[in-house]
TrEMBL record:
Record localization: Cytoplasm
Binding-site residues for Mn(2+) 1, renumbered to this chain: D287, D364, E366
Residue sites binding Mn(2+) 2 per the record: K282, D287, D305, E366
NCBIfam families: PRK00913.1-2 (NF002073)
Keywords, comma-separated and alphabetical: Aminopeptidase, Cytoplasm, Hydrolase, Manganese, Metal-binding, Protease
UniProt keyword Secreted present: no
Protein name: Probable cytosol aminopeptidase
Active site positions: K294, R368
GO aspect biological process, one term: proteolysis
CDD domains, A to Z: Peptidase_M17 (cd00433)
InterPro entries noted in UniProt: Leucine_aapep/pepB, Macro_dom-like, Peptidase_M17_C, Peptidase_M17_leu_NH2_pept, Peptidase_M17_N
Cofactor: Mn(2+)
């Protein structure tokens, strides 16, 4: 990840490759946002006019690059759009700052050092700029060729592997200007932003890692190594332990694959914690659909089906790194859903960890099966609340699109708390109902329940299925992140193409609220 420093230097005197300035949409054209005054002075007070001449309006995400004038130490001035200017002297919306900083950082890929002269005078703005820049600078380079074998010694020759390596390297150093670098609250805000960004980027890396390298066993090993680094307790149930424990859901989904399933328990505890939060993540490292095979066109991105588990993993590590006064236990239900001679057949009946039986009508509705076992197990420890996170249904994408996740719960106040936490974190979400009448669609003639119901409201049907495996009296919420977990179109704001790290910041915010006694 890019390095982060706070500096009280002026935007004009900072030695860097580039300096970023904010430009907002004013009533009469673009206006330079606070923090950019020294740059505007270097332009003789005409920066807004120069930008307007170049066609800039201050619209969200708009990037304009200018050669730096005399009196500015950096080579390049990058103006980034903030959208509508706030009324009067009001502060900028943190999410607008986060997105602008992200778009600017991405546009500076390949450069070494950039100063961010965006509005960052108060802690919330400062945190947003730090987070946005570190998240926007992300790029997944693990699988890029290091050397172009055909390049004959020239690193820049030829396209493809290795040829454009430097231009794609993330911006190495982010310096946020206008902050009080020695102020305790400012330092703390920047440190929190750094942890959040690092953990969101951890989740993105895992999601982007292809399924031939990330499978249940290698995922569990990654958790073990992070647990060691951050002093967390980890326990991994392998296929033998799962069989001994009666985890019929996880085993039933994983039995078709050469890569056997795992259930990982990762726990962070604080000696002064008053509450315990359990987080459960869907970790299907590849979802082929199983015997109910997905058609071509629907399986190319299915390495992303472990995004829930990645978010839970990253959120537990973040809670530990931030030293939150709350216990957080993560449960990762890891399996690879493959068709084979040993796979579960449509029509098979599984006996779940809870003892309930499930008729598997569609092996592509596998997420709810692994989650059901993990939810039942998580509830045994009597946490104050359980939250599961899953790329669960295509239906939720149809309902809410690609940027918003759905929030369902068995408790209205808790659903509101989760939704509010997401909003505070800058993650779009929306409350969804769990209408009881949809339950009868999952009635099975031979088992306690089927894993499929009515097609209409498929996201809610999946939620109702999960609800059956949450212990009576346990407060529970379900996040269906199928839409926003993986960005198949172009990057925007601080969101890259591919894995987005969706839900990490929401879970951390929820844990902070639980630590403060605000929820559950
Ligand atoms: N992993 C998919 C859901 C999904 C689809 C996530 C697209 C991300 C992008 C899930 O396992 C699935 O296949 N769900 C089925 C359920 C159906 C068979 C009841 C679906 O939504 O079609
Ligand atoms: Mn599926
Ligand atoms: Zn799936």
């Amino acid at each position: 990840m890019s390095a982060l420093t706070l500096s009280s230097s002026s935007a004009a005197t900072l030695r860097a490759d580039a300096v970023v300035v904010g430009v907002a949409k004013g009533p009469d054209g673009p206006v330079v946002a606070p923090g950019g005054e020294p740059l505007d002075q270097a332009f003789g007070g005409s920066l807004a006019g120069v930008l307007e001449t170049l066609g800039a309006s201050g619209g969200e995400g708009e990037v304009t690059k200018l050669p730096a004038p005399d009196g500015v130490k950096a080579d390049l001035v990058l103006a980034v759009g903030l959208g509508d200017a706030p009324e009067g002297d009001g502060p900028y919306d943190p999410e607008a700052l986060r997105r602008a900083a992200g778009a600017a950082a991405r546009a500076l890929a390949g450069r070494k050092k950039a100063g961010f002269a965006l509005p960052a005078g108060d802690e919330a703005s400062l945190a947003a700029v730090c987070e946005g820049a570190l998240l926007g600078a992300y790029s997944f380079t693990e699988y890029r060729g290091k050397e172009d074998k055909n390049a004959k010694g020239s690193k820049s020759a030829g396209k493809g592997k290795g040829g454009d390596g430097d231009r794609n390297a993330p911006l190495a150093e982010v310096t946020v200007l206008g902050a009080k670098a020695r102020d305790k609250a400012h330092k703390a805000a920047a440190e929190r932003a750094e942890v959040l960004a690092a953990e969101v980027n951890r989740a993105r890396d895992l999601v982007n890692t292809p399924s031939n390298d990330l499978f249940p066993k290698s995922f569990a090993a990654a958790v073990q190594s992070a647990a060691k680094e951050h002093g967390l307790t980890v326990e991994v149930l392998d296929e033998k332990a799962l069989a001994k424990g009666g985890y019929g859901g996880i085993l039933g989904v994983g039995q078709g694959s050469a890569n056997p399933p795992r259930l990982v328990r990762l726990s962070y505890t604080h000696s002064k914690a008053k509450k315990t939060l359990a987080l459960v993540g869907k970790g299907i490292t590849y979802d082929s659909g199983g015997i109910s095979l997905k058609p071509a066109g629907h399986n190319e991105t299915m390495k992303c089906d472990m995004s829930g588990a990645a978010a839970v993993f990253a959120a537990v590590v973040a809670a530990a790194r931030l030293g939150l006064r709350v216990n957080v236990t993560g449960w990762l239900a890891l399996a690879e859903n493959m068709p084979s001679g040993t796979a579960t057949r449509p029509g098979d009946v599984l006996t779940m960890y809870s003892g309930k039986t499930v008729e598997v009508l569609n092996t592509d509705a596998e997420g709810r099966l692994v989650l059901a076992d993990a939810l039942t197990r998580a509830c045994e420890e009597k946490p104050d609340a359980v939250v599961d996170v899953a790329t669960l249904t295509g239906a939720m994408m149809l309902a809410l699109g690609n940027r918003t996740f759905g929030v369902m719960a068995n408790d209205d106040a808790f659903r509101t708390a989760v939704h509010d936490s997401a909003t505070e974190a800058g993650e779009p979400s929306w409350p969804m109902p769990l209408p009881g009448h949809l339950r009868k669609g999952m009635d099975s003639p031979i088992a306690d329940i089927a894993n499929m119901g009515e097609r209409m409201g498929g996201g809610l049907v999946a939620g109702l299925f999960l609800k059956e495996f949450v212990a009576e009296g346990t407060t529970w919420a379900h996040l269906d992140i199928a839409g926003p977990a993986f960005n198949e179109s172009g990057p925007f704001g601080y969101t890259p193409k591919g894995g987005t790290g969706c839900a990490v910041r929401t879970l951390v915010r929820l844990a902070e609220r639980a630590a403060a006694g605000d929820v559950v």
